[in-house]
Amino acid sequence: MKMRLMAAVASAAVLSFASTGFAGTEEAKKWIDSEFQPSTLSKAEQMKEMEWFIKAAEPFKGMEINVLSETIPTHEYESKTLTKAFEEITGIKVNHQLLGEGEVVQAVQTQMQTNRNLYDAYINDSDLIGTHSRLQLAVNLTDWMAGEAKDTTLPTLDIDDFMGKSFTTGPDGKLYQLPDQQFANLYWFRYDWFQRPELKKAFKAKYGYELGVPVNWSAYEDIAEFFSVEVKEIDGVRVYGHMDYGKRAPDLGWRMTDAWLSMAGGGSKGLPNGIPVDEWGIRMEAGTCNPVGASVSRGGAANAPAAVYAIRKWDEWLRKYAPPGAASYDFYQSLPALSTGNVAQQIFWYTAFTSSMVAPKSEGNNTVDDAGKPLWRMAPSPHGPYWEDGQKLGYQDAGSWTLFKSTPVDRRKAAWLYAQFTVAKTVSLKKTHVGLTPIRDSDIRHQSFTDRAPSLGGLVEFYRSPDRVRWSPTGINVPDYPKLAQIWWQQIGDVNSGAFTPQQAMDRLASEMDLVMSRMQAADEKANVYGGCGPRLNKEVDPSVWLNKPGSPKAKLANEKPRGETIDYDELVKRWKS
After folding, report:
1. Contacts of 359 (CB under 8 A, 6+ apart)
2. pLDDT tens across 528-568, in order?
């Protein structure tokens, strides 16, 4: 992997002062008129913002920099369009490379481990906030903006307008990452099918309650069974009540760490993340920065009954209710499944793919009508039986600009200018319309999104609702994301293969996380590697000691399938708007 990364960097000019075209106000005006509309700013305000970029970039004109992000539509727009605009306006050339999420994390980890400058900036998930705030290898943006980079920090950046700023803030109150795109993991369903009178009647006759948006996992399971086993066929097409993936690959790890255990109810109450136990099952007491364990025997919940239940249901639903072959799909193979039009619902769906799900029928999307309106809707994620009010309800990704101290200051400043350009108010509303991954509150409340809302299946309503704070990324309990994340997919994959039961796999997972954290503890105690905020593991005790205490980890429920509960989608939207 390191060789591939080095080759990728070498293939781009690491530092170049090649001549560039004239950079200035005429180019800025052209882009404002032809591309950067709509905007929350007036054209005069946009021009003023661009004039600031032109002046701030003067010391770096002719420089060529390299940045890296994962491959989603938002970053494709940045890589293909915004780099061109930025170069024409500022004279700074940007090679914005796109790789898979796992490769981005690997590149970040390699740069941290070697202190070698592979890229000048990264769009890196805020899931690493616990890592960056502890290792202190990433630039503390709060101090950077006020000090060394004051001359290259946009006066109109407006940090308070970013919906995800709490996700990128460390336990010290400092901002370590600047949000660039944001998307939630929500419930997706075929609204048109759920409205059919004959299906509503048949569902109520069998299950005793209305067919609607599931509030709990019991209802989700009933709906999955209903479409896969009872309905079977709609309009001549074999249909299924569930979609997921299960291949033993790195993306199976984030399928679980993206809050699956907390959706089941495995963590503690608290927003944006549970305190003291988070969605990974890692315990860190309130007011401290030292994780104390993942195993129930140490006060964690990674192998607690709620976690085991969550993994069991993932495996069970995948085999019983998903289309044939889904258990062998990876994340990327599973993506096209919904657009074929044969799936009724999906409990774990990323809103980052809204743009592809509103593609026209002519592009093979069978989930829109002839006019291009979505036949589907997105809604809040249902929760498992261990969930309590006050817990987070799902995951929200916040891909965020991250700078490293190992990057030379001049290159870092040039990259910082590009990072701000991609999220500046001149650009951000148009970028949001392209990628549908909103980061600014002012953008999602703009009239242009009010007008477009009926065509986006609930995205606008969700991000305007007060409920959006209940979906959040991985938080500060995770002391070193790259080292711990790789454990998950290997252990969970053993459930899919049948090598281990869910309980055995989660016992092994929790134990291995504790082992890795014990090494972090040793390194921190010896050399202050984690700034004194590395793990300090609790001594192991009989699990019953912790299970008999209030809160998480929670003891096994006598009944893990309470009565199903649903809500009418249109009533739900009214609540969001009220």
Report:
1. 339, 365, 368
2. 999 999 999 999 999 999 999 999 999 999 999 999 999 99
CATH no. for 2-176+397-470:
3.40.190.10
Whether domain 184-395+482-578 has CATH 3.10.20.30: the reply is: no
Whether 468 and 462 have beta carbons less than 8 Å apart is answered as yes
pLDDT, residue 46, reads 98
Residue 520 C-beta-side C-alpha neighbours within 13 Å: 28
Question: Mean of the per-residue pLDDT values for the chain?
Answer: 93
| Integer Cα distance of 97 and 12 in angstroms | 10
Using omega within 30 degrees of 0 as the cis cutoff, is the peptide bond preceding 380 cis? Answer: no
pTM: 0.90
* Common-topology check for domains 2-176+397-470 and 184-395+482-578: yes
Distance CA 481, CA 537 (A): 17
For residue 20, is pLDDT > 60?
A: no
How do the domains of the chain map onto residue ranges?
2-176+397-470, 184-395+482-578
Cα(553)–Cα(303) distance, integer angstroms: 9
Count CA atoms within 13 Å of residue 352 on its CB side. Answer: 21
Half-sphere exposure of 49 (CA within 13 A, CB side): 27
Q: What is the reported pLDDT for 269?
A: 96
Distance of alpha carbon 72 from alpha carbon 196, whole angstroms: 34
d(CA 222, CA 229): 10
Contacts of 424 (CB under 8 A, 6+ apart): 49, 53, 154, 156, 157
List Cβ neighbours of 326 (8 Å cut-off, separation of 6 or more).
243, 244, 245, 246, 318, 334, 337
- Would the pLDDT of 18 be above 90? no
At 321, list the tokens.
């209710």
Listed in sequence order, the residues at least 6 apart from 312 whose beta carbon sits closer than 8 Å to its beta carbon are: 502
Contact indicator for 474, 490 with CB cutoff of 8 Å: no
Please answer whether residues 86 and 421 qualify as being in contact, where contact means their C-beta atoms are separated by less than 8 angstroms: yes
Is the Cβ–Cβ distance between 491 and 520 less than 8 Å? no
Query: What is the pLDDT confidence band of residue 22, given thresholds at 50, 70 and 90?
Result: very low
